[in-house]
Amino acid sequence: MPGEVITSPKVSIPNAVISHAIKVPAGNLVFVSGQTARNAQREIVGVGDIEAQTHQVFANIIAVLEEAGATLRDVVKANIYVTDIKDQPKVTEVRKGYFGETRPASTFVQVKSLAHPDILIEIEVVAVLP
Amino acid sequence: MAKNVLESSKVSKPVGIMSQGVKAIGGHLIFASGQVSRDVNGNTVGVGDIKAQTRQVLENLKAVLEEGGATLDDVVKVTVFVTNVAEHFAQIHEVRSEFWKDGYPASTLVEISALANPELLIEIEALAVIP
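Output (structure tokens, whole complex):
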């Protein structure tokens, strides 16, 4: 592994063969695993509530980035997976509150299912350290 | 363009307008295309068997990375696309743990409605960094 494994105590440990994020010295890159609305106790926050879930997802991303010495302002790419594309306006509103003037390159797609039936959204990001 | 196309003789040729992998940023980054469970002749391996398919996919990725001078240990990020997350999640990770012992890559896993052909259950793309 040419990068550093990043683990945040504020985010639940994945029930899978994955890390929260990887920090790569070449290019000062941080790859954050797709985050879902699980809190540090692995409970799903905001069942049936896309806005609450999106807030939790961002809280997780912020926590993981923080461990790598980055913030949302350093994000250059975001991939957003939702189970219902009709949620896009709500997600976009929440997202604006976090990214503000930062407008990372983004992909937004609907998928058939995420890791658990109650999970409505997953977001992964790539950041470049300042 | 500052990139090198990777082509492994151990992996079947891509069906689409794509490379198996590409080396970028002065050779430091390798983008490996999404691999499916096809052997070098293009035949689907492990029809109906998610563990066999996951193994073949990771073997293919290994071969593509090898062309770029990297190994699975150099992978920093994977994106996993599956057709049935509820039934296959645990088995996929069982196989992944055979290939990665520690320093797991960052990862995103989503269920999609179809892959390139109906027999395929999983596709994994990877990003590696050469130290």
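The helical segments of chain B are 50-67, 85-99.
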